[in-house]
Amino acid sequence: MPNLDWLTDIPRTTLGHWPTPLEPLPNLSRELGGPTIWLKRDDCSGLATGGNKTRKLEYLIGAAVADRADTIITFGAVQSNHARQTAAAAAKVGLDCHLILIRLVAHSSPNYESGGNILLDSLFGAQLHFLDAHEDVKAYTKNLLARLTASGKKVYSIPTGGSNHIGALGYVQCAEEIIEQCEAQKICANTIIHASSSAGTQAGLLFGLSCLNSQIRVIGINVYHSDPSSLHKAVAALGSTLMERYGDLAEVKSPGQVEINHAYFGEGYGQPTQETIQAIHTVAESEGILFDPVYSGKALAATIDQINIGNFADEQDIILIHTGGAAVLNVYHQNLGYK
Length: 339
Ligand SMILES: *Cc1c(COP(=O)(O)O)cnc(C)c1O
What we know:
Helix content is 39%, strand content 17%. By secondary structure, the chain is α/β, with parallel strands linked by helices. The protein has 2 domains: 5-51 and 164-332, Rossmann fold, CATH 3.40.50; 53-162, Rossmann fold (3-Layer(aba) Sandwich). The strands form 2 sheets. Strands 1-2-10-7-8-9 form a 6-stranded mixed sheet, sandwiched between helices. The chain has a 4-stranded parallel sheet with strand order 5-4-3-6, with helices on both faces. Pyridoxal-5'-phosphate is lined by residues 51-52, 81-82, 161, 163, 195-202, 292, 295-296, 323-325.
């Protein structure tokens, strides 16, 4: 029998509040007249305005502590939610934190490099390194690492989005949390939808569901890769790595079936579509819940559209994972239609 017993032996530092709620969206579900939408509230993870990186960071910070590191380095776009949650996690555990933030998104907001997540990164005491998109991140990082090491620091490096075989364990564990909540709340879900970009969330969920013998389908809404096949490849590759590392322990035969939907990507990473903006307004007004224009709002728009075009049966339960991101809202106020 596949299992998740092996997961409890892996170092983990508690950073969040678990389980996050799995709650219905009654007003939106009624308005759309289709399946019941259950929102998995990972935006309420409890760390620094929340988000999906908290789960990954519990294992990554766990590994850093086991490694006796005193300094964390990680990477992201300027308004990275991952960078903000890493900064908060490092603050909580007492580690120094360096964020390498790359200018990937064309924007017109005057506070793009000072508001939103950047304000929070600064509050958590992280050191920020801004790089232009054309700059050599590898060379810069090598240099920074050399400087930190020379000054006696022991550095632990976390990849973009926390998406490696360690970070993904956060979503392996989340698969179990979802299955337990479905049983306890008598929810019969056959689909999970979420915004997907650096592959850790999707690969972790798929592997976790595989370990639990679950047939639930996972649809990753691509928000990052202009070529969706590169996201498909990244999720499949991380799935293979999880198989190599834990497949025998978990007694699973497959890391799960990768499914990517590219229809809601719009013009690019960090560029919300009209449907994204509309979806954010709709659910703020009808449910009092904040989604973001870069990630969760695109997954929300996808969910609404998939229901409207009849791709889910009415009697079905579907789960939308709210992966967080609302900390960026105040640098997107023009996109949202405000001055
Ligand atoms: C990082 C992030 C995602 C995507 O998760 P991946 O594991 O990188 O695919 C989705 N939503 C939000 C708000 C994020 O910050």
